[in-house]
From TrEMBL:
Protein name as catalogued: Ketosynthase family 3 (KS3) domain-containing protein
Keyword annotations from UniProtKB, A to Z: Phosphopantetheine, Phosphoprotein, Transferase
Cellular component per GO, a single term: plasma membrane
Gene source species: Pantoea rwandensis
PROSITE patterns from the UniProt entry: KS3_2 (PS52004)
Keyword Phosphoprotein: yes
InterPro entries: Ketoacyl_synth_C, Ketoacyl_synth_N, PKS_assoc, PKS_Beta-ketoAc_synthase_dom, PKS_NRPS_Biosynth_Enz, SAM-dependent_MTases_sf, Thiolase-like
CDD domains to which the protein is assigned, alphabetical: PKS (cd00833)
One Gene Ontology term of the molecular function aspect: fatty acid synthase activity
Keyword Transcription: no
Start and end residues of each Ketosynthase family 3 (KS3) domain: 12-439
Sections of the chain in a coiled coil: none
Length: 875
């Protein structure tokens, strides 16, 4: 390193990033990744019913309002070139794709830097991280059969412990190799530890990074208020409408080396790590999963001190930025406090978050942010942060050194001469990491007098060669400041592995290469029959052409006679991986389909069959009738109250109408309905009676009978006029709903209406399949049996002799007498009619609780809940 550089870095030990491999959503290379984030692309996929079905996810979830069918997906994540890494197919199938992708990215990082694993002379190590495996989960049988090679292989292929050591073994690395697990900060802490290993002399070069994939990638997720996942599958860091992030999949690995060695060896340098720091929050926070302002502030201060730079010289911060309403303001506050001693100016630094593009990469989040910030330094451009509209109300950016860039910005060289960036990663559990980056030292390009510049493309298959051509085209379309055609050409010849499929492009400059690459990509994929050929955009003699062709075809080309090696290397794309679908034989691993899954499948099949037969043509008309009659009978409660009279709140209205407090929930619901209908209007302190609806109750009841709801119409005609008396307790509600203990109307509703037939048939088919798949005796507990509509279908579905006990429950004896007589005739099962909950004991019936029924027994107990959400809540 020159004296001027030594003076610049002082007592610090800068580490160079000299190579990288990555797999991010819709980006299979470093250069494609930069192009997409620079263009402000959102890399999140949305899943329709077909995509969910293909992934083994129930498409019916799309009907749920809280289901978000979105995630960031790695294309072809299940493909693997197992032969290239010396695996058998069987062993490769057992390895979690997280570990396979990490291995591929590690190879790519070395290859990009020009260091083939089989020629390594330096001591190289690897530190990495990955998410909990969802590829092949361990079972109790695995623990029992761990002595078998297949089981042992499966456990090693899916355990985090073997992530780094697998890479060390396959690539022949002899430096430190271990896995780091600190949740979201894992891969940035892995980078910190890799820098420490180089500084201590344990290694000459280190690979560091992380992988994060969950299967199926297309699972989607459920939104829950107050949790970290957004309601719509978008991530909006620092924005007023931010409400969280979403699941992302990806992997990234960087290759690190001491800067002085990298400069001496002519390595291409993506960026320089000036300093790193880690710490933990301890208990100084609201909870284990909560962030800590002091923890974040201190780790940022430590990193600045170790880097030996002032905060007012930093122009870009790649934040953790999860887009949570509380997390983002806390992170801005921690940064602002940590930077305050340097007196930075307002809006001095752009602040962004990769999560706005693709969501949360979990264990790979830190290395993803590190690669993004390094590319920004290399390109001298600041990429945008997506979905930022107005600032989070808890963030006043005018009082901070930060601003959120919403479009790609040029990044002029600062007055002090160096572009600098900072990267944060904060893990659940409190392990924090912060890194200070700097642009690579400027290299003066020596003049080159070559009349022809060669660009060698080499890959393992014709399709991979085409993909490599696409990557070179993207790379050359977006050249960094200081780009050297000579170094690019020499790197392609002297510092890339040689594979069977090769193309040599000859041109006078990089624009000539780009034109040839675009022409090459215009050729239909099946028409490129040659596996080796020279394409020249310059005039060559026959002797020159033969010379290039001869070396291109050689096993060990001697390029020196044709093009001299450069003292410095350039960052070029590497031969892409393809491979084949490499998944374990799922059916063979699990000896048979789970009986419970079979039952669920039977339920889905029956639901699909029945839904096709379900006639809902009059459902809208039924709703109109019921809504009109509901408004009529509920508003009748206020017939004696003058219009425009303030009524007070719900409790005041109940007192006014002489309705007991136990009906407060019901009354509140009815008040909301009347407000929606315009009968009531809300005031700051309650309600006001504004309107009396004119409803033709007889006409609506007639319409209900015309569309087939005779029994429901009779029930409403009988109970509606008595609503006030039933609420006030002047008449017995049971005697009104069931006159002379007659249950005909209600029985018809629960047994013969289309919806009732649908649900009863669905439940009985599931119970029937359960009985077919199990030999143990079955006991059924039906909670809220009511008229016995569901019970009738369930008993008919059970094979003779399979049900040892059928417990039929409800709130009182009325619903227990008739079903008991009916069902004892239908079945030989022991029918136990029981009163549910803690109501007073009635003659001949015993009150029950759940604990009195769930005793250990050698049988299958099936609870069935029918129209009894209160009972479900208490279970």
């Amino acid at each position: 390193m020159t004296d001027s550089l030594a003076e610049h870095y002082g007592d610090t030990l800068p580490i160079a990033i000299i190579g990288a491999g990555c797999r991010f959503p819709q980006a299979n290379s470093l250069f494609e990744f930069w192009r997409r984030i620079a263009d402000g692309e959102e890399l999140i996929s949305r899943f329709d019913a077909a995509a969910l079905t293909a992934a083994g996810v129930d498409p019916a979830l799309l009907q749920r309002s809280d289901f978000v069918p979105a995630a960031s997906v790695i294309e072809n994540a299940e493909r693997f070139e197992w032969q290239f890494f010396g695996y058998s197919r069987q062993e490769a199938e057992s390895i979690d794709p997280q570990q396979r992708l990490f291995l591929m990215c590690a190879w790519e990082a070395l290859e990009m830097a020009g260091y083939q694993p089989n020629t390594l002379q330096d001591r190289v190590g690897v530190i990495g991280s990955c998410r909990m495996s969802t590829w092949q989960t361990a079972t109790a049988a695995d623990a029992q059969n761990i002595v078998t090679p297949a089981t042992f292989q499966k456990l090693m292929g899916n355990d985090k412990d073997y992530l780094a050591t697998r890479v060390a073994y396959k690539l022949g690395l002899r430096g430190p190799a271990y896995t780091v697990q600190t949740a979201c900060s894992s891969s940035l802490i892995a980078t910190h530890l890799a820098c420490e290993a180089i500084a201590s002399g344990e290694a000459d070069m280190m690979l560091a990074g992380g992988a994060s994939l969950s299967f199926p990638q297309q699972a989607g997720y459920f939104h829950r208020e107050g949790m970290i996942f957004s309601r719509d599958g978008h991530c909006r860091p620092f924005s007023a409408d931010a409400d969280g992030t979403l699941v992302a999949n990806g992997a990234g690995v960087v290759l690190l080396k001491r800067l002085d060695r990298a400069v001496e060896d002519g390595d291409a340098i993506l960026a320089v790590i000036r300093g790193t720091a880690t710490n933990n929050d301890g208990s100084d926070k609201a909870g284990f999963t909560a962030p800590s302002l002091s923890g974040q502030r201190e780790v940022i201060q430590d990193a600045l001190a170790i880097a030996g730079v002032s905060a007012d010289t930093i122009g870009l911060v790649e934040a953790h930025g999860t887009a949570t309403p509380l997390g983002d303001p806390l992170e801005i506050a921690a940064l602002t406090e940590a930077w305050s001693p340097a007196s930075p100016t307002a809006g001095q630094a752009a602040i962004g978050s990769l999560k706005s593009n693709l969501g949360h990469l979990d264990t790979a989040a830190g290395v993803g942010s590190l690669i993004k910030a390094s590319l920004a330094l290399w390109q001298q451009q600041i990429p945008p942060t997506l979905h930022f509209s107005a600032p989070n109300p808890a963030i006043d950016f005018s009082k901070t050194p930060f601003r959120v860039p919403t479009h790609l910005e040029p990044w002029p060289v600062p007055k002090h001469g160096w572009h600098r960036a900072a990267v944060s990663a904060f893990g659940i559990g409190g392990s924090n990491a912060h890194t200070i980056l700097e642009s690579a030292p400027v290299r003066q390009n020596p003049p080159s007098q070559a009349g022809v510049y060669p660009l060698l493309l080499s890959a393992r298959t014709p399709s991979a060669l085409r993909a490599l051509a696409q990557q070179h085209a993207a790379r050359l379309s977006d050249r960094e400041p200081g780009f050297s055609t000579n170094e690019y050409a020499a790197t392609s010849l002297y510092h890339r592995s040689l594979f069977p499929c090769r193309v040599l492009l000859l041109a006078r400059d990089a624009d000539g290469w780009l034109a040839q690459l675009l022409d090459l990509l215009e050729v239909p994929e099946g028409d490129a029959a040659k596996t080796m050929y020279v394409a020249e955009a310059v005039a060559l003699s026959e002797t020159q052409r033969q010379g290039w062709q001869q070396q291109l075809s050689a096993d060990k080309p001697d390029w020196q006679r044709l093009f001299a090696e450069s003292a410095r290397r350039s960052l070029l794309p590497v031969a892409p991986f393809e491979g084949e679908l490499c998944v374990p034989p799922r059916a063979a691993v699990s000896e048979a389909k789970s009986p419970w899954l079979t039952v669920i499948e039977a339920g889905h099949n029956q639901a699909n069959t029945l839904s096709a037969e379900l006639d809902l043509s009059v459902l809208d008309e039924e709703n109109r009738c019921v809504d009109a009659l509901h408004c009529h009978y509920v508003s009748a409660l206020f017939d004696q109250i003058p219009l425009e009279q303030p009524l007070g709140d719900c409790h005041a209205i109940m007192a006014l109408l002489n309705i007991p407090a136990r009906y407060s929930d019901l009354m509140q619901r009815m008040l909301c309905d009347l407000t929606a209908a315009g009968v009531l209007v809300t005031l700051p302190d309650g309600y006001l009676l504004r309107h009396r609806p004119e409803v033709d109750a007889a006409g609506w009841l007639k319409r209900m009978r015309e569309v087939g709801y005779h029994h429901l119409a009779a029930l409403i005609a009988r109970t509606g006029p008595e609503l006030g008396n039933m609420l006030r307790g002047t008449v017995d509600p049971v005697s009104v709903v069931f006159p002379a203990a007659a249950t005909d109307d209600v029985e018809h509703m629960y047994q013969e209406q289309p919806w009732s037939r649908y649900f009863n048939s669905l439940a009985s088919s599931v119970l029937q399949k359960l009985a077919e798949n199990h030999t143990a005796p079955i006991r059924v507990l039906e909670i809220g049996g009511g008229t016995g509509g569901t019970t009738r279908d369930m008993l008919q579905a059970l094979p003779p002799g399979r049900c040892s006990r059928y417990t039929f429950t409800d709130l009182g004896p009325l619903f227990l007498q008739k079903p008991k007589r009916s069902f004892e005739i239908m079945t030989s099962s022991i029918i136990r009619p029981l009163i549910w909950s803690n109501r007073p004991r009635a003659r001949g019936y015993r009150p029950i609780t759940m604990t009195s029924l769930w005793r250990p027994m050698y049988c299958i107990t099936v609870p069935i809940c029918v129209s009894c959400f209160d009972a479900l809540r208490r279970c």
